């Protein structure tokens, strides 16, 4: 999955659906785009941000209402959709992935497709639906996150490695290890719905900014819960900031009511957060980080997992 993430050419836009008096989607407002999206449509962000699509692309397509319906379904249900669309004013087909970080908001990602792939995609769509949306959906989510927060990629890869060490020590099954690796890569995917100014802030966050940041488990859960291939980790994405003593968020789970995968991730995630330098603070040593894990064992962390990881870190990290 890591290789596929790096290969995705990102063109994405973040939008809010506009509803009519009957609650049906009638238009949408463009809130944010990246530079690749600007280049694709030939307009700069100043000319499109805060404006309705119907004003930006008047008469751009004869099936504009169909496109708005498509976007409205994603924004209101939270179900990730993937389709091939011909964009007439660009004169080409694009593979479009659309997903919703929160109700009434949606992100569309446009990717190039090879010649002839549009027809092939339509022919095999029923087969892919039978087995669920493939891992390229996860790659799309991660590519957006990694562009918005560059340090997130290295963090996810290190957390996956640390989770792997714990999984080996705990003798998890191959299926459990696969689920844990997927969770490690996707646990912060909800940050695609957090303002980039917060993700890239060089200093400590304010209380209001922390309030927004703490929503990322719920946003991540909404994004992945309807994607068949990712459904298995949706609940763990929601619960990955729960604490052993019940003081975490957003559900206030405690002890073994917190899924094992979340308890493993919590230790690995915190260890990496402490031992990796950030713009606003220096990293601490492995020994200092292990001491901090021990200090918070039984409150933030599963005490047995904190002990096991501390032993692993002392030997192998």
What's the gyration radius in Å? Answer: 21 Å
Give helix and strand order, one letter per element, not per position. Answer: HEEHHHEEEHHHHHHHHHHH
| Helix-strand category | alpha+beta
Q: Could you give the count of β-strands?
A: 5
User: Mind summarizing the main beta sheet?
Assistant: 5 strands, antiparallel
Treating each run of at least 4 consecutive H or I residues as one helix, how many helices? 15
Biggest β-sheet: strands ordered side by side in the sheet: 2-1-5-4-3
Runs in which pLDDT lies below 50 for 5 or more consecutive residues are 120-134
Q: What is the overall pLDDT average?
A: 87
Percentage beta strand: 5-15%
Q: Helical content, roughly? A: 40-55%
- Molecular shape: elongated
Task: Give an overview of the whole structure.
By secondary structure, this protein is α+β, with helices and mostly antiparallel strands. Helices cover 51% and strands 13% of the residues. The chain has 15 helices and five strands. It has a five-stranded antiparallel β-sheet, sandwiched between helices. A hairpin with a 5-residue loop joins strand 1 and strand 2.
